[in-house]
From TrEMBL:
PANTHER family the UniProt entry points to: ACYL-ACTIVATING ENZYME, BUTYRATE--COA LIGASE AAE11, PEROXISOMAL
TM segment ranges: none
SUPFAM superfamilies, per database record: Acetyl-CoA synthetase-like (SSF56801)
Protein name in the entry: Trans-cinnamate:CoA ligase, peroxisomal-like isoform X1
Domain AMP-dependent synthetase/ligase: 22-407
InterPro entries membership: AMP-bd_C, AMP-bd_C_sf, AMP-binding_CS, AMP-dep_synth/lig_dom, ANL_N_sf
GO molecular function annotation: ligase activity
Keyword list, A-Z: Ligase
Keyword set includes Ligase: yes
Lineage summary: Eukaryota, Viridiplantae, Streptophyta, Embryophyta, Tracheophyta
Amino acid sequence: MNTYMSKFEANYTALTPITFLKRAAMSYADRTSIIYGEARFTWQETYDRCRRLASSLQSLGIAKNEVVSVLAPNIPALYEMHFAVPMAGGVLNTINTMLDANGVKSILDHSEAKILFVDYEYIPLAYEALRLLNVDPKRSTTKLSVVIIGDSTNKNGKLESSKKHLEYEELVVKGNVDFMAVKIEDEWDPITLSYTSGTTSSPKGVVYSHRGAFLGTLSLILGWEMGTQPVYLWSLPMFHCNGWTFTWGIAARGGTNVCIRNTTASMIYKSIALHGVTHMCCAPVVLNIILEERKQLTTQVQVQVLVGGSPPPEKLLIKMEELGFYIVHAYGLTEATGAALVCEWQKRWDKHSHEERARLKARQGISVLNIEDLDVKDTVTMQSVPKDGKTTGEIVIRGSGIMKGYFKNEKATSEAFASGWFHTGDVGVIHPDGYIQVKDRLKDVIISGGENISSVQVEEVIYQHPEVLQVAVVAMPHPRWGETPCAFLVVKTAKHHTVTENDIITYCRNNLPHYMVPKKVCFLMDLPKTSTGKVQKGTLRAMAKNIQLPDFNNHLQMPPKFTSSRL
C-alpha cells in the first residue's frame, strides 16, 4: 500500500457526539428538539443556545478537561449541557439528584469541579453541600463558581432570588452564537465523568471518552432499532450514564426530547397523549408505576420501551404489552457507557405463546456493536462456560464502549480490567443461541451448604404469586448451612395479613427445589432503591443479618445432593 495514504483533515476526524448536534441543526433546523411544559425549541435554537453557553463557559475560565458539575432533573438546561460543556472543552459531571448533601459534597470534592450548575429546586441541597465542602480541612482553597438554573418552563425563565449568583439563561443570552466548538484532536479525551450508584461499594468516578460516547450512542440506537424522528420521553434520569447516551442519540436521529421534571404515572400518560411519545427508557420499577395507574391511560398507545436493571418479570412484560408498551430488555453498567447488551428480537419468535415470548424478552441479549467481545467465564479458571443456558460464570466484556477508567483510582481500574476483560461482577449464563442471561450479582449469589442459589431465580418465582408487587431475595445467616435465602416483599394490598409468610413459603416449595426456598419472608411498605430503580440489596443484607430463625429444626433443608426432595 502506498505510504502517501495517511491521515488528512479531509479523511480523518476524531469521533465525538458533539457532531450530532451540528448535523441536527443543519438537517432538521425547524424540527422540534425539546418540549418542556409550554417551552418549545427547534434544533437550530438548541444548537445556537449550546454555542452561546459554551462561549460563556470559556469566558468563565473553563479550560480543556476541567470538570463542570450539574445538579438538576430532566430539564432542557441539563440536556443542553451535554453538548455545551464538551463544546467548550470541559468534562460534564451530572450529579444524582437523590443524593444527600454529603454525597454531593464528596462528588464536588473528588471531581475537582470548577463550576456547579444548580436547578432552583435543589438550591438548599447544593448550599448545604457547599457548606460542608468549605469547612472540610482537606479541601483545597480553589473557588467553586455557582450558576443557578431558573424556571425554564418558558424560554425566558429567570430566578429572581439568584442575583448574587450567575444565572443560566443570562449565560446563554450573553454568549456568542457564532462560537466555534473546541476541536477534538484526540477522541480519547474525556467527555463526561459519571459516578456509580454505590449499591455495592463506594461510588467511583467513571470517565467516558469522546470516542466511547460516540460509538456507544450509535450502537444503542442501532441495537434498539430506533428509527428517525422519535418522540422520546425522558422517564430515565439524564444523570444516569448520560441518559444511556440518548442525550446525544436523540440529536443523532433528529428526534424530539420530551422533558419531565418528575417521573410519575400522570406525567407519563399526559406526555404520551399530548406529544405522541414513541420511545422511552426506564427501570422495571417505572413499569410497575405505569401498570398500577393504567386507568389514567385515555388513548391508544404504541410505545417502545427500553428497560435496564433487574430482569423484568414475565408476567409484567405480558401486561405491559397488552397496554401497548413494547418492552426491549437491555443490560449495562455505568462503566460500559450505558447499555452493553440488548435483547434483539428474532422474527421466528413471533409464533411463540405470550408466555414464551415474555421469557425470551427477559433475557439480556447480545452485545451492541461497539462491544468487540463478551463471554461468561468461570471465576476461578477464567475459562469460558458451556453455552448451555445453565452453567454460570461472570459476564466479562471488552470493546470501545468501556470506560477510560476510574478517576483518580488506578487500583480499582486495574482490578476491573484484569486479564484483558472488563469484569462486570454479574453472574450469568450463555444460551445455545448466544444470548446472555443475568442470574445474579457475584456478591448476591447465596451459598447454602455448598450449593449456589441464584437470588434472581427465587425472585422470579415469588413474583408470580398474585399478591406480590415487588420482591428482593438476599442471603441471611443460617446456623448449619452458612447462608439461606431471605425474601423481602411488597404486596399489592395495603394490609399484609391478606398474604402470610407461610403462604409465600408454601408457594415457593411448590415451585422451587426445596433447598432454594426462603427460610424467612419479611413484608415491607417499599424496597430500598437507588434513584435509578436498583434495589439496594446491601441494605437488605444488613437487615437480614439481624433476623433470627424462629425454629431451627423446622427450617432445616438439606442441599439436593443429600436429599431426594422434589425438584
